[in-house]
Structures are given as structure tokens and as C-alpha cells.
Amino acid sequence: MALLQIRKYPDAALKQPAKPVDNIDGSVNAFLDSMAQTMYAAPGVGLAATQVGDNRRLVVLDTDHEQPGKHLLKLINPQIVEAEGSILWEEGCLSVIDFTAEVRRAAKVLIRAWTPEQKEIEIEATDLQAVAFQHEIDHLDGKLFIDRISRIKRELYRRKLAKMLKEGKSNGQRPTSVRI
Would you say the pTM of this structure is higher than 0.85? Predict the structure, then answer.
């Protein structure tokens, strides 16, 4: 297992939709292990394969801050099959440096996915876990959380980022809120 490089906005790879995994084998599981190691090191609660330059529909997720690794989910071809309610959540992202924003998401979701053991599973999620699933599946669809905020806020962030990069002030650190 090795740490993977997390792509940062505005990297064009982050806008590319991922492709379904057709064959679940040992190499998929090994890659998911590397993704999990990268997510924990970042640190974050979720990571999509597209964030590390891989175009497969793979996600790792662990929203249990008290017991990292105990509830780690490694998902292949995850999809939202049901969504209900509404919740406003302050989101950050491992691929979007120095920025968080409130994003409206479904409050409850039902996710269907495959495990590395080739079992189809369904997961009902609420609160942070529901938000994290939606955030990561957005990544697999080529969307970032900043695509879900107002155009004005997005443009202000783009200007701030351009200024930071021009002045060399960004150290790649993200705000201290939960990074998905």
C-alpha cells in the first residue's frame, strides 16, 4: 500500500465522470487499501478514486472519528437509489484547498454498492454519512461541492485561489472542519 497523490481543484481530472468497475479482483482491493491509507493520512472522511487520478467508480468512507478503521467502507460502483429530506451541511474537500461552504443535500439516502468480496450491499445513511456518500458519488460523476454553491461564492473562491497560488501562500492545508 502506498499513499496516493490527491488531485487539487482546478485539475481537469476532477471533472471527468468515472467508469463502472466490471471485474472485482485483488488489484481493486489493493487500490482501495491505498485509497483508505491516503484518506486517513490527509485526513478526511471519504475519498473517491477520481480524486487520486483513477477513473473507476471506487469510494472509501469512514465517518467514525472515534474509532478510525473500525467502520471503514470500501465501495465499488456505489449509487444512490433513494434520497429524502433536506439537510444543510458545512462541507470541505480534500481536493478543494482552503475553503468550506454550506451545501444542501438529502438528509437520508439509500446506497447500493458492491464490496471487494463481490457482495452487493445496501446502506441507509443519515447526517454526516449521508452527506459524505453524496459528496463522494458527486466526485464519481465529475462534480465538486463547489459546483453546488452559488456562482458568486464559487467565483470568489476561484479568485481567492488564484491570488494564493500567484503569491505562493497556499500551503495545501484545508480548513479544520470535516473534509470529505
Answer: yes
